[in-house]
Amino acid sequence: MEELGYDQRTIELAEIAGYMHDIGNCVNRVDHAHSGAILSYEILKNMGMDVKERTEIMMAIGNHDESTGTAVSDISAALIIADKSDVHRSRVCKNNIATFDIHDKVNYAVTKADLKLNGKEKIITLELQIETSICPVLDYFKIFMDRTMMSKYAAKYLKIWYELIINGTKLL
């Protein structure tokens, strides 16, 4: 958001939303975005945050899940792009590849993940290197197609272009 010229307070609100966005997982993974929105609102209210600012954060958190959300503000769009770009080997906690589910395989197969923003040209690029001996690129899309499209629409909300490059091939 800084690269796109947003003011410092908006950037800080986006950082808070990013920090809190998965707090709803402490209730249940299902519908965690909505649970998280409610929890974050109450936490920020108890901390004395202005109602307009905590509502902005609540909206971003409540709309970050690909099954129920969409970009509804600049902060929510930035949160979506950051969250849906979070794929990498270090997310996998299991040690035995034989026990991996498809999510583990996809994350483990990603050996490089770079999210780059060219603010001047208004292009954001997610560049991935996927070790296809662990997981075919098609399996990546089984998990990430909805997330990728959500990121593309969030970028459009911010009036920037979204690109996806996998193993050196530009797909979007």
Please trace the helix and strand order, writing H or E for each element.
HHHHHEEHEE
Q: What fraction strand?
A: 5-15%
Category from helices, strands and their pairing: alpha+beta
Distance between the termini: 22 Å
- For this entry, what is the oligomeric state of its chains? single chain
List how many beta strands DSSP finds. Answer: 4
Strand order of the largest sheet: 1-2-3-4
Largest sheet: 4 strands, mixed
What integer is the average pLDDT? Answer: 95
Give the domain tally.
Answer: 2
- Provide the gyration radius in Å: 17 Å
Q: Specify the overall morphology.
A: globular
Helix content: 40-55%
Query: Low-confidence stretches at least 5 residues in length (pLDDT < 50)?
Result: none
